[in-house]
Amino acid sequence: MALIKQIRQRTGLAIGVIAVGLIFFLVGGDILGPNSTILGSSRTTVGEIAGEDISYDEYVQKIEQTKMSFQQNTGRNPNENELSSIREQAWQALIVEKIFSQQYQELGLVVSDEELVDMVQGKNIIGELRRQLTNPQTGEFDRDQLVTFLQSLQTADPQQQMFWAQQEKLFADSRLRIKYDNILATSEYATTTEGQLQHKMANTIADVRHIQIPYYAVSDSLVQVSDSEVRSYISKNQEKFKVTESRGLRYVRFPLHPSPEDSAATLEQINGLVAELREASNDSAFVVRNSEAQNPFQTINPGDPLPVNFSNNVEEPETGVVYGPFLSNNSSYVAYKISDRYDGAPRMRASHILLNAEGLEGEAKEQVRARAQEVLEEVNETGNFEVAAAQYGEDATSQRGGDLGWFFRDDFVTEFADAVFSARSEGVINRLVETEYGFHIIKVTEMPQTETKKLAVLELELIASDNTRNDIFRNADYFAANSTNATTFEANAEKEDYQVVSAIGVGPTARSLNNMTGAREIVRWAFNDASVGTVSDVFELDDAYVVALLSGKTEEGDGTIANPEIKAQATNQLKNEKKAAYIKEKISGLETLEAIKEVFPDASIGSTPDLRMNASVLPGVGFAPKAVGAIFGLRESGEMTDPIQEDIGVIVAQLNDIIPASEIADYTRYQNELTANASQRTGYMIMMAMEELAEVKDYRYKFF
């Protein structure tokens, strides 16, 4: 929707945001200030950026500004997931403001009044306004809309003027960041020597054989790792074992399953509605009013199946008859009624193999045509259309055997639709079909169907009643009240046969525990209020009550053997190092790959005839940059590398041949490639570097 309409039609949302802002302005000093009796001075800082504390008030104000933009753009309030994203956007905006403002000043970067006017009403309208102010008929930017809006600002309501002032500030801030990034991006440069090296890396090719001995080829019993060795290994390799702040939790979940009485009550209710649906004169209106289905009145197009729950229970449904209710897999009772059947536009089903020729002409296009003809002949000979589609198809359908599903004639370009809808039988069309996309080999899999159905879906969700919820809560509350520490928590869970679930490595911003969503309040409790061994009160989630135990606490810093995850990780790596040493000793002196395989039958021998120097992966082996580097250090055919330890095992390679990159007269292409790649990374790298230098600390998890 155009920006003008958004502003005019959604002033109510803006007024609501302003009201919230006024409340914070009038009482925020008491509620959230340094002397707050609610939060206290130690509870009002949500983070630090460049040594500056970010207050709760400042952060909330930025959230409200970001939320207001969302409301103006969408015409609605954000849901919980969107609100989480808005909070993150607001935080990133604060980082940018705090970090980059000083940089802008030192560099003398400004957006002048004249530049801002040009951005919002001159010859160089910014992209965001162009997208907002488009003519729905032409899809093009409509300057008249912009002029009308700007003229109306003089007499507009204060909230509209405030919104526009905020937008202009955002436009200016965005332009400053673009200028800053461009200064650094355009400073990137690659020398001729760097271009020459890039050419060499991309075009030096090795023909090589290699063997990989996986670590599992050595039994764990052959390598012993003591705790003292693990402790020493962790100490010497702390860069690998740095840990972030996290918590360990154990919890008991009390699902809100409906009782038999709830099921009987819901069944009685839907049976009453089924009786009314049988006599309803307007099925659509009835199910829209009474059904809890997401799509209560559906059009079933020709070829599309009826809902599985319906077709599994009724073989040949009649029009006008209500079937059900049936219990669904989604814990609901559902009844169905086919309200109408009629012949509509026909639909067919087909598969295709596309050989792309889009944009090609002349000889290049004829080569694709010849290749497509060869594939067609192969399909006719073998009958393996789906296999050929997976092998030769050049669009996304190749992964599903070329299947296009059911479609109307108008769903595809004319040439394709004409070929399919003129077919008189199922099977492969024995000619190529050319379209603007290329050459198609087509197999008709279903002949035309025309029957369209109107389906009324009457569904009632089977949920726990208030009485049932109260009973479940009492059980959870009793368990929590009698579980005062870790020992009693575990003992009571075992006594009552409750399942205790563990969640380890829970981060401060987590919103779920394992596959249990909506658990943000539990995470906040773990980081703010709980000490190790503390048992929580009852938490209410959408589909369960939860009682949690804080079982572990990990602070940010160096990893230690006391951390089970760190210990397991270090133990495995140390074992692999010892296994690598064992492998190297066993194959020492062996002169062929085959001889190595005799010692380690689990090893795999492979070959790569076109390995490039800039590769980091050995095909069929995996990520092996050290091995690739060693290969290109070989000089003579038949020469073998020393055993190389990689994460995936020990690798030995034997060179067949190496083809050096040819010398060329001009390395400009490779210089430009390096420069372009570096420039593309600049914006991201700047942000990461600035955040690191500013030592950003994020405490928002204490509040949200």
The percentage helix is 40-55%
The count of β-strands is: 20
Number of helices: 23
**Radius of gyration using CA atoms only:** 34 Å
Shape: globular
Task: List low-pLDDT spans.
Answer: 1-42
- What is the overall pLDDT average? 87
Separation, N- and C-terminal Cα atoms: 32 Å
Largest sheet: 7 strands, antiparallel
Percentage of β-strand residues:
15-25%
Overall tally of structural domains? 5
Question: What's the CATH class of the largest domain, please?
Answer: Alpha Beta
Classification by helices and strands = alpha+beta
What's the CATH topology name of the largest domain? Chitinase A, domain 3
CATH architecture of the largest domain: Roll
Main location: membrane
Membrane topology: Single-pass type II membrane protein
Subcellular location: Cell inner membrane
Pfam families: Rotamase_3 (PF13616), SurA_N_2 (PF13623)
Describe the protein.
The protein is of the alpha+beta class and 704 residues long. The chain folds into 5 domains: 1-39; 113-186; 205-240 and 564-659, no CATH class; 245-257 and 465-555, Roll (Chitinase A, domain 3), CATH 3.10.50; 259-463, Chitinase A, domain 3 (Roll). 45% of the residues lie in helices and 21% in strands. The strands form 5 sheets. Strands 5, 6, 7, 8, 9, 10 and 11 form a 7-stranded antiparallel beta sheet that branches. A 4-stranded antiparallel beta sheet has the order 15-3-19-18, sandwiched between helices. Strands 12-4-14-13 form a 4-stranded antiparallel beta sheet, with helices on both faces. Helix 2 (11-31) runs antiparallel to helix 3 (56-74) and helix 4 crosses helix 23 (668-694). The longest helix has 28 residues, at 80-107. The chain is globular. It starts with a helix and ends in a 6-residue tail after the last strand. The relative contact order is 0.14.
